[in-house]
Design brief:
Elements lengths: L1 E6 L19 E2 L2 E2 H13 L3 E6 L3 H11 L4 E6 L6 H7 L1 H4 L5 E4 L3 E4 L2 H5 L5 E6 L7 E5 L5 E6 L8 E9 L2 H13 L10 H10 L5 E4 L2 E4 L3 H13 L15 E2 L3 E3 L4 E3 L2 E2 L3 E3 L4 E8 L1 E3 L4 E8 L2 E2 L4 E7 L2 E2 L4 E3 L2
Parallel strand pairs: 1-4, 1-6, 4-5, 8-12, 14-17, 15-18, 16-19, 17-19, 18-20, 19-21, 20-22, 21-23, 22-24, 23-25
Antiparallel strand pairs: 2-3, 6-11, 7-13, 8-11, 9-10, 9-11
Length: about 325
Amino acid sequence: MKAVIPVAGVGTRLRPHTYTQPKPLIPVAGKPLIASIIDQLVSDGGITEFILVIGYLGDKMRNYIENRYPHLDITFVYQEARLGLGHAMYMAISAFEDSEEVLIVLGDTIFEGNLKALLKQPNSCLGVKKVDDPREFGVVEIGDNGYINRVVEKPRIPKSNMALVGLYKISDVGILVEALKYIVTNNVLTIDEYQLSDALMRMVEMGVQFTVFEVDNWYDCGKKDILLDTNAMLLKRQGNASEDIPAFENTIIVHPVSIGENCQIKNSIIGPNVCIGDNSILDYAIVSNSIIGSYAMIEEAVLEKSIIGSDAAIKGLSLSLNIGDNTEIDFS
């Protein structure tokens, strides 16, 4: 089985951080978001063949993936025009059309669930989760026979609260290819984009019997608050938080935390749920529920629920911040 991961988006909801790096490269629990996704697919699903659809800042994504995963079989597909998830999959057709099965996983989504059970499903299956407001998501409707009878993108009047979570196991690959070609060649647009949900609905109309796979938890990491929640959740997973933490001078560590290499920390309280990149300096800092990039400098500051980019410098404040790379702020 091949896994297709679309990562070509701009990530406007996470600016300023996505001005300088693709959203899936933002660090969460000690490693980029995309690494958490790939590592889970390898360890839990045994997947070794990947197709990444890249676009915005694609060179950074490609360099990172090639350096971190030289042992995996990875194909890169470039999506120059960002015309939707359906278009991203259309661009990747030649890379997966010869596969018996395909797993599609969005590059900004973390899920908790039994991946092995999903992959054992004999038919095509869509990952879902019940949500309070389905109008912001792709939604599936399930018929009396237990199969999906409708897939609709961001319905104005939802008839179901079962939202698509960005996890799609496709056994009918040939029909998926036909459906993707159909929506693009016939210019089937929803919200001005070629939607994967429209291709899935086309597959339903062609007779494919989709079942649903309800995940335990799902984190769509496109917003600051959800990204921080994801960081906290992943830090609680075994193996993600730092264990052998140096005895930093006059500093209290409240677990779980992830602290990178060569950090200088003193006179501080760090944690819980804090991720700090390599070579960062913190002095007289109180930091909780936050993500701090590499080579950052934090002095005389109290930070909670903050995301601080790499090479950022902050001195003298008590706030919740969302600061991009290469930023310097002095409140002293």
